[in-house]
Amino acid sequence: WFESHKIWAAGLIVGELCEIPSHWRETRTLSKWMNEHNIPGIHDIDTRALTKIILEKGSMLGRIVYDLPPVGISLFVDPNTRNLIAEVSRVSVITY
């Protein structure tokens, strides 16, 4: 039931991650779903404090990393240099 042909989130930050979901329609956990789509994530983050920092300092580039990237790999890719609308828009019309 996706309106796009793929997941466009580059990453996910959550305060609490539920590994034992109880919704009757659940088929997998959020962690498993993100792993299936190769979306990095981090949990146990104070999202209210993070939101406050962003409000005070303005939007900023960030990256979720597990290890330092190899030498020569750019730490950040500025999304403002890409045509994001063209990237996420459907190529053809889909009727639901």
From TrEMBL:
Question: Which SUPFAM superfamilies does the protein's record reference?
Answer: Carbamoyl phosphate synthetase, small subunit N-terminal domain
Q: Name one Pfam family in it.
A: CPSase_sm_chain
> May I ask which residue range the UniProt record assigns to the signal sequence?
none
Q: Which parts of the sequence belong to the Carbamoyl-phosphate synthase small subunit N-terminal domain?
A: 1-65
Protein name, entry field: Carbamoyl-phosphate synthetase-aspartate transcarbamoylase dihydroorotase
**Organism per entry:** Meteoridea sp. 1 BJS-2011
